[in-house]
Amino acid sequence: MNKPTTPLLLRSLSSAEALTQLLQRSLNPWEETYLAHYSTYWNAIHTDPRLLLIPVDDHIVHRGDGVFEAFRLINNKFYLLPQHLKRLRSSAGAIGLEIPWSNADLEQLFKELALAARDPHLIFRLFVSRGNGSFTANPYDCPHPHLTVVACRFKPYPTEKYQMGVKIGRSAILQKPEPYCRIKSCNYLPNVLMKKEAVDRGLDFVISFDENGLLAESSTENIFILTPHRELHFPRLQRILKGTTLERCLQIAKERLHIAHHERDLTETDLIQAQEVFMIGTTLDILPVSSYEKHSFASQEVSQQLLTLLREDQM
Question: pTM of the prediction?
Answer without folding.
Answer: 0.91
